[in-house]
User: What shape does this take?
Amino acid sequence: MTDTAWLGTACPRPSETHRNAAEARQNTLTKPPGSLGALERIAIQLAALQETERPCADNVQIVLFAGDHGVTAQGISAFPSAVTVEMLRNFASGGAAISVLARKLDARLEVVDAGTLATSEVAGVVTDKPCHGTRDFATTPAMTPDETAFAFDTGRRAVARTVDRGAHLLIFGEMGIGNTTSAAAVAAALLGKAANDLVGAGTGLDSDGIRHKARVIDAALDLHGLKAPDVPAADVLMKVGGLEIAALAGAIVAAAQSRIPVLVDGFIVTAAALAATRLNPSCADWLIYSHRSSEQGHRLILEALDAEPLLDLKMRLGEGSGAAVALSVVRLACALHGEMATFAEAHVSESL
Ligand SMILES: Cc1cc2ncn([C@H]3O[C@H](COP(=O)(O)O)[C@@H](O)[C@H]3O)c2cc1C
Ligand SMILES: O=C(O)c1cccnc1
Assistant: This one.
């Protein structure tokens, strides 16, 4: 039995001293105070987390967790499960969206098979899984307690591999046909909302398909007793989550415990972040929200997390792609914060 006690270890608090210093610096830069909007907020948050007056997001690691979902047997995705493993090869050979973004951003990309149906190792992919895909949660819990604990640890091990590389920021992505259904089920259970409020088109379901997806989730929440209030997040993940979603939740907690800020991607990673904040509320300080996905339920999860994402580009891909695109904005926020001249340095008159 894998121990999950580590998930509860408190994450460090952001430095108020550095937050105050960064805020003070923003107000001395040659611009009307507050005029850089969210860019100021992000630079100040990062300064507090990195315990510096000049935050930085140059050294970035992207970790993508992949897993397969038994619930695909219910016809809840527009694509077949085989795509998950096919995409593993595409990530490794550099042709996926996140592969291109990682190259252009000069960020390292590690792909972890956290539980796909692949029966042998895929070249260029780290294999760290307790089983091959989850069970169909329409009929039985998706995972056993041991598989869930293993998946949390998969996330922790991925973060441990990056700590020595000195990453300023982590981005987590995911790949798993069927995982918008699992993510919606997890979020519906944790938020006490109807499945209908959290489902969306995923890879491209039509409105009948979306209604069917909601019915599958709704029935599963009944079956597993997840409409009751205050079901522990680990139970929710075990019953209707996924191996890559539990790995994401474990990785988010582990990153915060290791003092590494996380740039949170779209619908699925945000559902995992919601679970992570239930597993360990102190990790919330370490999360920066990158974008609002056009997957319908994302808005509700973001609201529950009190999150204001940086971008809304109508993206709905996953893989960490929204966070990767927002990384450019974060980097520019850091550059402005660190490199703009102050009123005194530039001999510019301050406000009346
Ligand atoms: C070629 C392809 C590449 C992807 N990359 C991410 N996803 C995204 O779509 C999947 C979730 O949608 P659903 O729940 O509808 O299956 C996940 O793998 C997610 O990462 C992809 C989907 C496809 C088809
Ligand atoms: O926003 C996401 O993460 C997302 C949305 C649809 C499909 N896959 C991922």
In short: The CA atoms of residues 289 and 308 lie 7 Å apart.
